[in-house]
Amino acid sequence: MSLLKDWRLILSVIIAHVLLYITFSDRDIFWYLYTAANLFFISFAIISEKIDDKQRTRSYLKYGVLSGLLLYALFFAGHLLLPHLPFSWDSQAAAIYKRYSPQFSWHYIVLILVFIPGEELFWRGFVQKRLSVYFNDLTAILATSILYASIFIYSDKFVWVLAAFIAGLFWGSLYVWKRSIPMLIISHLVFDLFLIVLFPLS
């Protein structure tokens, strides 16, 4: 089967764009609609692909925690450079925190239980896995990262698109290396806990 005939992959990416366009249309409904979007991602991925889990629990916990910390360190270093870069990227980052940071206890719950698993199951566990059937690993990582980043264009914050692209490259490479979705979820969880909850870069 050719890529153009993979209707599940093409349709799912189109739906992801529609959902994120609606999600970013109103800040007041962001947490509700992004929760719904990621529930769709989880359901679609589980129905469409087998979840890869080729690491033992101790292994994916170790690599998940360490990789999450490493990615946060990379973002921390990047944050130090933002004031010296054009396009007011530092003010964009501050605006993202102000508009979309968790405010209520249920926000933290869905962040951990829905957002993070949903993104990894769908973008790495489904989209990248499907693309790897048609392309080599490097091309699949790059294409998936572009698609992952592209849904954040509706935020009108280019720095968010760039951050998603970089994170996509990182987690996509990690997926090719270890083939463990649980490890990616742990990595994403550690990264988000530091980036959003413990030591926000704002």
UniProtKB/TrEMBL annotation:
It comes from the Bacteria. The chain crosses the membrane at residues 7-24, 30-48, 60-85, 105-122, 134-153, 159-177, 184-201. Residues 104-194 form the CAAX prenyl protease 2/Lysostaphin resistance protein A-like domain. InterPro entries: Rce1/LyrA-like_dom. GO terms for molecular function: endopeptidase activity; metallopeptidase activity. GO terms for biological process: CAAX-box protein maturation; proteolysis. This is CPBP family intramembrane metalloprotease. It comes from Bacillus aerolatus.
